[in-house]
Amino acid sequence: MRFNFMHGGRLVDYEFATGRSREELIDFSANLNPLAPPESVHKAIARSLRRVQEYPDPLSRRLRTAFSTHVGTSYEEVFAANGASEVIDLFLRALQPKRVLVLEPSFSEYAHAAKRSHLATVSIAMPADFSLPSTEMIEQLQKGDVIILNTPHNPSGRFYSRSELAIIYEAVREKDAYALIDEAFIDFVDEGEQQSSIPLINEHLMVVRSFTKMYGIAGLRLGFGIGSKKMVEMVQGMRDGWSVNVVAEEAGLAALHDYTFAAQTRDWLREERVYCMDRLQAMNGVTVYPSAANFLLVNGIAAGLNVSKWQERLLALGLFVRNCDSYGTFSSGVFRMAILLRRQNEQLLDALALELGR
Ligand SMILES: Cc1ncc(COP(=O)(O)O)c(C=O)c1O
After folding, report:
1. Would residue 251 count as lying in a domain?
2. Taking the model in full, what pTM does it have?
3. Residue 107: CB within 6 Å of ligand 1?
């Protein structure tokens, strides 16, 4: 059986493929917080069910007020949407850029969103260490283009600080172009909020945030866009006003009022990431890239790993990793794993050790 999904988290596909219920499956292919949703969000979801007969607020006013306070920006500079994916789509539709510059590899939805808006895409290859190819990006950038960057970067987990990104922001402004910064995983980064580009937003710079990963509400959907007042007004004027439903709104408000959960997650993640990295680094021929996020990119080419074949054996155990061959830049020996709970990580890492010893 061949798994070549463009995204992780396709539990329904796995259910169909394995004939097993999703409760028996452990999914390392989507990068969702295994401690989530927090109790506060669970309770809010249960309470909100009373409201499902109502239409949601098309302006998401309570959510935008709480989120703007949380990130220290003004209400008029944020909008809520049906996940970060919708935010990206809306920004592209509003900007109507000349071209969309994306890094290769990166989240496949950037290119898909560009295609949906009939925009040409320019791919820029990343160096092997996933550092930012700033010179090339700036050389390629033309007036009216938008460049989409992601920090921490999916799939590598590498984090680009605000000062690393500053040179791009400067070029974007000088060339009268745009930068869209996807911070979908920044909640997992130690001191991430201090490194966010939100305080720098202007007519040329926009930021994307997601609540689906940290708060474990991928099925409910919630994301935020942060941009200039003019940009947010433009987005609000051309969209479906009901894409953030009443349950997502209550869940988001509860998450924003939960002042401990994200910090507790980061405390847990710091240790668990070291455990996973240590075990991977102890395996001969395996390279694991430094990650600031809740996932790891693992290269087993030198160890002779064939992820597609391994995936078939993992399937029998109910385990799924993200085969990275669909990114185009990787060969068949590279995969990405979410960092889950210890016993789950152990199961996957034991399976990998066994596979490499075959
Ligand atoms: C880098 C990146 N940005 C955005 C998203 C989309 O997030 P959401 O679930 O909020 O639409 C993903 C989902 O995997 C992602 O990896």
Report:
1. yes
2. 0.96
3. yes
Burial class (CB in 10 A: 0-12, 13-18, 19+), 343: exposed
pLDDT interval class at 18 (50, 70, 90)? confident
Domain that holds residue 204: 39-256
The span from the first CA to the last CA of the chain, in angstroms, equals: 20
C-beta of residue 108 within 8 angstroms of C-beta of residue 6: yes
Is the CB of 252 within 6 Å of ligand 1?
no
Answer yes or no: is the C-beta of 29 below 6 A from any ligand 1 atom: no
Average of per-residue pLDDT across 51-67? 97
The atom number, within ligand 1, closest to the CA of 182 reads 3
Q: To test the ligand 1 pocket, which listed residue (89, 109, 209) has its Cβ within 8 A of the most ligand atoms?
A: 109
| Residue 173 Cα to ligand 1 middle (Å) | 26
Q: Are residues 224 and 267 in the same domain?
A: no
Residue 210 belongs to a domain = yes
| Overall domain count for the chain | 2
Please give the mean pLDDT across all residues of the chain.
Answer: 95
Q: Domain containing 244 — which CATH number?
A: 3.40.640.10
Give me the amino acid identity at 33.
N
182 CB less than 6 Å from ligand 1?
yes
pLDDT, tens only, 148-193: 999 999 999 999 999 999 999 999 999 999 999 999 999 999 999 9
**pLDDT of 102-147, one tens digit each?**
999 999 999 999 999 999 999 999 999 999 999 999 999 999 999 9
Q: Which residue of 149, 208, 213 sits with most ligand 1 atoms within 8 Å of its CB, as the best mutation to test the pocket?
A: 213
The dihedral sign for the CA sequence 56, 57, 59, 63: negative
CB 211 within 8 A of CB 222: yes
